[in-house]
Structures are given as C-alpha cells and as structure tokens.
Amino acid sequence: MEPGANSVPFTEQGMPTHQQLVLPILLAVDSLGGSAKTQEIIETVLEHLPHADALLQVAYPNRPQDSVLISRLAWGRSTAKRIGALEQPAQGMYLLTEVGEEIIKLPDVEAFSTIRELDREAFRAKRKQKELETTTDTAEPREGIPDADILSASDEETHESDWKSQLLSRLHQLPPEGFEKFIIYLLRRQGLQLQHTGGSGDEGVDAIGTAPLSPVLSSRVAVQIKRYAPEGKPIGRETVALFQRDAQTKGAERAIIVTLSRFTEPARKAATSTVPTVDLISGDRLAELIRTDGESGVKLRPTVDPKWFDRFE
C-alpha cells in the first residue's frame, strides 16, 4: 500500500497515477512547441490539472517536504520515455516523438488505454531482457505504483529536485524582509544596482534601481518579491498587471517579479503584453540562479556514477 492521509492510498484520494499523468505531460510538451524543459512541463501540467493546488499539498508521511504529485510527474516522464513517447536528448530537456504525437491525437480514454498497453509491453520486454522471468519478477506493477525501472530512471530527476526543494524550503523560512534582502543581494551579484524600498507606501515595488545593458547603457528597473510557498498557489495575471502599473509609476522601463512559487500561463502572457515588460523568476529559476552564482548558499559536490564505467568492463 502507498499510504496517504489516514492510511488511505494516494490514488484513492484522487491523486493521478504515473500512467494517468503521461497524457497531460505529452499535451504539455506539445503545447510548448514539441520540446520543453522539466519545469516548463510541470508548470503547464499544473496549470491544466484539476485540483492541482490541493494535490500539491499531499506529501509522503515520512517525507513531509516531498510532494506526491511532483514525484509522480517525474515517474510519468520516465514512463513516457520508456514507451517511446518522449525522448530526452539532454538532462532536463524533452522532445515529443512520433509515438507521442499519435497518442495525443486519440480520445482521452483510448489514449490512456494505449499508454497502459505500451507500458505493459515495455515492462515485459525489460523483464525478458534481464532474464528474470519468475512469477514474482514478471508480475506487472500495481496500479499507481511504478516498478523499479521507472523509479531508477527518475532517480536523477529526484536528486536534482531534492536540493532545490531543500533550498526553496529554507528560503521560505526566512522572514519576509529577510527574503527581500537576500533577493536584492542576489540581484546585485548579477550586476543590478538596487535600493530596497519596502514599507506600506512602496506601491508594490520592493526595490528600484538600474540594470546594466552595456558598459555605457542601463535601464531603470523595478523589483517585486513574493515569498509565496514553493508548492503553494501560483502568481496570476492580476498580480503581474498590477505590478506593471506600479513599476510604470516609478518610471521603470523593465521589471522583475521573484517568487518561490510559479506563474500561471496568463501571468506569463501578461508579462510581455505591455510595458514595462516583466521578467518572471519562479522558484525553479531562482534555484538555478543561486546554483550558477556558486557563492550564495549552494555548493554542489561532484557525484560519481559507478554504473557509467560498466561499459568498459
């Protein structure tokens, strides 16, 4: 059993299985132009998945920081790869294949049936290849629980998300003013010259200053900082549009919104629909900025993959 609240399996609580998430994942990649990064897929699926905000709050009893839905999305991507519906040319990047294109053309019920059958075939082929055809090893995975191959395939993404989850959780523990000061510090390290405004009369602008465009040119920029929960409600269009007006009042030519959460699709469209245009920095992008900085609280050590060397034996 995969227990959730009150020992009720997650699937019985309305949580989609990894197989059920394959179609939304394929549709997300298709809507993004046939290729997408991991976080883009997650954000697009969450945008269209019913009750996504509530499902994001469901965590593993022994790992309260780990979202069951985010884990199943990782398993869903691994499943999509295994059945040939997605390709992964590089870490964190996915391409929709011909198989995937054919699946999304089908009615939902037929598409899910096709996904399950392809997954069964891939499972059997893998078991046969490993010559582990015993009663136990050839049994198909229980509904909603991925087999060892899918879990293994998603280990890399899980490792990638672990440090981000830990980082964003720690940032969310900062007091609001402390979080604002950290973001301003980080943006200053990117070359921006900022003054922390804050206070009730800041009209939604937490920092104002200039961003260098070249050695002789700069642009006036306004910054808004939202310490929303990493897995909480996303920032919508209204927030972006209101900030654009506030930034314009301050004379800003460009604007930036930083959050630990994410942005809805309407918010992303609003960000570039009028001036000043707004650069949206979600929790995932913020984590990447901190990692790239290399001297702001995140140090990633080299990791050895012993299995990689098997090819030379």
Structure description:
Helices cover 44% and strands 16% of the residues. The chain has 313 residues and is of the alpha+beta class. Strands 6-7-8-9-10 form a five-stranded mixed β-sheet, sandwiched between helices. Helix 1 (22-31) crosses helix 5 (98-105). The mean pLDDT is 86.
Compact summary:
This protein has 313 residues and is α+β, with helices and mostly antiparallel strands.
Any chance you could write out the topology, listing elements then pairs?
Layout: H1 22-31, E1 35-37, H2 38-48, H3 52-56, E2 59-60, E3 63-67, H4 68-82, E4 86-90, E5 93-96, H5 98-105, H6 108-129, H7 148-153, H8 155-172, H9 176-189, E6 193-196, E7 207-212, E8 218-226, H10 237-249, E9 254-259, H11 265-270, E10 277-281, H12 283-293
Parallel strand pairs: 8-9, 9-10
Antiparallel strand pairs: 1-5, 2-3, 4-5, 6-7, 7-8
Helix pairs in contact: 1-2, 1-5
